[in-house]
Design goal:
With 290 residues, the protein is mainly alpha-helical. The protein is built from 11 helices and 5 strands; from the N terminus they run αβααβααββαααααβα.
Length: 290
């Protein structure tokens, strides 16, 4: 009989990382606790790979020791794929990407259950993204709450909203964000009973993916009227999340501009640099009100 071993919790990840770090010739300033906190869902093999990738980044830069910068680069690569620094974007695309990612980042920072921000980048990646915003979870979670799922939707819409506010136009860069937001809203309504109007009834199942030809023969287990109500609830959730997210971004418009400018200058920023933008904005607002 095979026994399936679960993924390690934060304490387990910290212990695994310490074992692998001992194999490195030298490390400087590596915060093992922070690494463990920022790798939820990683298996032991993935953590070993993280340490190996960090060592490779240090070696490529002719460094004698592995530090947190190497681990940050390694984690970005494992999450988002290798960076494609040779890919040159037009300046209009870089600017749109900078505001797009700044929109995501602001919501990650402000909303209580989804952040904080770990990395914001406008360097294209191997997964086809023009940029990315990566959060740093503070703890392991087994369940998602309704409020957390609504915040996830808001974060997903943040890039598109920033484009709308700044450019009065939109790009195709938010397609995956919109898909993710829609899937979350649909699960809330159809799977988790999080719509008061629809109630505590599960509609559909996990095998409802559409394949060519299969959707034609698929028999839906509910009426057209219920289908319209479900569609209406999904649309309502997306609409309300969009409105709430837009209000937050407009309230932090100064940070949106300063974050985009910093990304255009440096291409990638981390938590300390990003959070400092909020402090600077508060100080400037306070001076203006004096």
């Amino acid at each position: 009989r095979q026994v399936q071993v679960g993924l390690p919790d934060i304490k387990g990840r910290e212990q695994i990382l310490r074992v692998h770090l001992k194999k490195l010739p030298s490390t400087i300033g590596v915060d093992v606790r922070a690494l463990a906190r920022g790798t939820p869902g990683f298996s032991g093999a993935q953590l070993a790979n993280l340490v190996n990738e960090a060592a490779l980044f240090a070696a490529r830069n002719s460094k004698q020791s592995v530090d947190m910068n190497d681990f940050e680069e390694a984690k970005d690569k494992l999450f988002m794929g290798p960076e494609r620094k040779s890919m040159v974007l037009r300046e209009e695309e870089r600017r749109a990407t900078a505001y797009h990612e700044a929109g995501h980042a602001i919501l990650f920072h402000v909303l209580p259950d989804v952040g904080p921000v770990y990395t914001v980048s406008i360097i294209p990646t191997g997964v086809g993204a023009a940029g990315y915003t990566m959060p740093l979870p503070e703890k392991d979670e087994m369940f998602a709450t309704k409020s957390r799922m609504l915040q996830d939707i808001m974060v997903s819409l943040g890039g598109r909203i920033a484009e709308e506010i700044i450019f009065g136009d939109i790009t195709t860069g938010a397609s995956n964000d919109i898909k993710r937001a829609t899937e979350t809203a649909r699960s809330m309504v159809m799977k988790y009973g999080m719509s008061e109007k629809i109630g505590l009834i599960a509609y559909g199942n996990d095998d409802d993916e559409v394949f060519i030809g299969r959707d034609l023969a698929h028999t839906r287990g509910y009426s057209e009227e219920v289908a319209r109500e479900i569609d209406g609830e999904i649309s309502r959730i997306i609409r309300e999340c969009h409105e709430n997210a837009e209000s937050i971004i407009r309230e932090n418009i100064g940070v949106l501009h300063s974050c985009a400018a910093l990304l255009l200058e440096k291409e990638k920023i981390h938590r300390e640099e990003f959070e400092a933008l909020f402090t600077t904005e508060k100080e400037e607002v306070a001076k203006t009100n004096e």
